[in-house]
Design brief:
Layout lengths: L1 H23 L3 H5 L13 H22 L4 H22 L3 H22 L4 H27 L1
Helix pairs in contact: 1-3, 1-4, 3-6, 4-5, 5-6
Amino acid sequence: MKKYLSLLLFLVLVLGGGLLIGYATLPGAWYASLVKPPFNPPNWVFGPVWSLLYVLIAVAGWRTWLREPSGAAMKIWGVQLILNFLWSPTFFGAKMMGPALVVIVLLLASIVSFIASVWNRDRISGWLFAPYAAWVAFATMLNASLLWLN
């Protein structure tokens, strides 16, 4: 029971935090006015994708916490979550695409680092982060393109 309560707490922290930050920093008119690259997805794609990714991030964090709550992998997981939660306020809130690009590059590096740190002990957690890594790599390219075009 205690094990599943901790999973619920991870889901609330990650999914709840991500959704709260997402709603607090909705793209709005500024983002709509930007020149976008041809591969820019429609706005409606972001909510469902991030919701699914947040669930995967939470489960990977929970699995890592169960195995080694104070270990290096858990610390890396915490860093990636902070960077993840920092990107939207930097990009959409402060409208600072350059600093947001720095944040997302660091985020991508921390995601890859997390995967590498858990791969030999918990391949499931590593695989849970694979779609996240792919999406953030795409988002990094999108952020860089938006900065370049605007």
